[in-house]
């Protein structure tokens, strides 16, 4: 008499593999739902037509009286230069300063919309 040998894993191992795959799929779904949504931002076009350099532009959320203005990265602009600055899609207050630290422009209660722009003039 010859004994037959089954090829492949037994039913117990196959069931464990399926359960492990199901567990991984469920874990990935939970992690994907638990991660915070990305912060939306829009490009805000700023043009310097002042005839002098802008040293920096500062921002803060609208209506927040306790939060200080913070500088926007790469917001210095030479005379005649235009640049797109990435800002949150929420309401912001902006202040632009020249190289001497004097205020050369303000935007209060700016609600970001696509294609928004700010031209600083004399």
CATH topology of one domain: Immunoglobulin-like
Work out the helix count. 1
Order of helices and strands: HEEEEEEE
Mean pLDDT: 82
How would you summarize what this structure contains?
It contains one helix and seven strands, in the order H-E-E-E-E-E-E-E.
Please give a structural write-up.
The protein has 122 residues and is α+β, with helices and mostly antiparallel strands. The chain has a domain at 41-121: Immunoglobulin-like (Sandwich). The protein is built from one helix and seven strands. It has a four-stranded antiparallel beta sheet with strand order 3-2-5-6, with no helix packed on it. It has a three-stranded mixed beta sheet with strand order 4-1-7, with no helix packed on it. The chain is elongated. The model has no long low-confidence stretch (mean pLDDT 82).
């Amino acid at each position: 008499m010859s004994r037959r040998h089954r090829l492949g894993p037994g039913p117990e191992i196959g069931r464990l593999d399926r359960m492990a795959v199901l567990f991984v799929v469920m874990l990935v779904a939970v992690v994907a739902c638990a991660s915070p949504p990305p912060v939306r931002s829009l490009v805000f076009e700023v043009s310097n037509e002042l005839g002098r350099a802008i040293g920096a532009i500062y921002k803060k959320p609208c209506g927040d009286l306790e939060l200080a203005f913070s500088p926007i990265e790469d917001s210095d602009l030479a005379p005649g230069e235009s640049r797109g600055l990435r800002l949150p899609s929420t309401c912001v207050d902006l202040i632009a300063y020249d190289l001497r630290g004097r205020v050369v422009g303000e935007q209060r209660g700016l609600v970001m919309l696509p294609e928004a722009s700010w031209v600083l003039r004399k």
